[in-house]
Amino acid sequence: MLVLLVVLALEHSPLLVSRIAEVISKRLSLKAMDLLGINPAEVADKDFYDRTWRAIHSLLDVIDPFPGPRNRLLTNAEQDDIRLARDEQDCARKQVRLDRVAAQLMEATMQMIPWEIRRKWKGNVCIDATPVAAFGKRGTPKEGKSNWVSIEPDAAWYVREDDHRDPGDDKAKGYRKVL
């Protein structure tokens, strides 16, 4: 699944289960399917979506450090129950796995840079703390809002209030950013 997600990312396609299923059912050669461990004889065209969904979730189930439903709004009480039911050691193990997968994806990305350029590079590569807006922070019902959490309940609000201007830049304004 990771290989197919990377293929979609490289061609700037949406990273959707339906797109992965489409790649499997319509675009992969038999040799590519064999390399990925996909046996086309075992499944009909219409089943690729369901199999892809299960395969993606089999991957996510072992690397998601904050398990819980993400397809519906939850009340605060429901989310509290989910958090209390989480095993801290299991969450920590999954976080280590997720960090390893992220590091391997970073390494794979670096390996795509031509060798001549990579060998000249003397710096470091890292995943920084750039905030990414969580989709789930939208759509919380206005009525009884305090009773509900978003579908991304483990996401948090990002607030930047400091002055992030470059030294000597008198034209830019310091500003408050919230997402």
Give the C-alpha Rg.
21 Å
Q: Termini separation (Å)?
A: 30 Å
The overall pLDDT average reads: 83
Helix content: 40-55%
Low-pLDDT stretches: none
Order of helices and strands: HHHHEHHHEEE
So how many helices? 7
E-strand count: 4
| Structural class computed from helices and strand pairing | mainly alpha
Per DSSP, what share of the residues sits in E-state strands of 2 or more residues? under 5%
- Order of strands, main sheet, comes to 1-2
| Shape, principal axes of CA atoms | globular
Major sheet attributes: 2 strands, antiparallel
Q: What distinguishing features does this structure have?
A:
4 strands; globular; two-stranded antiparallel sheet; 46% helix; 179 residues; mainly alpha
TL;DR of this structure?
This protein has 179 residues and is mainly alpha-helical. It is built from seven helices and four strands.
Q: How would you describe this structure to a colleague?
A:
The chain is globular. It is mostly helical. Helix 2 packs across helix 4 (about 50-65). A two-stranded antiparallel ribbon has the order 1-2. Strands 3-4 form a two-stranded antiparallel sheet. It has helices at about 1-10, 15-25, 30-35, 50-65, 75-85, 90-110, 115-120; strands at about 75, 150, 160, 175-179. The two termini are about 30 Å apart. It is built from seven helices and four strands; from the N terminus they run H-H-H-H-E-H-H-H-E-E-E.
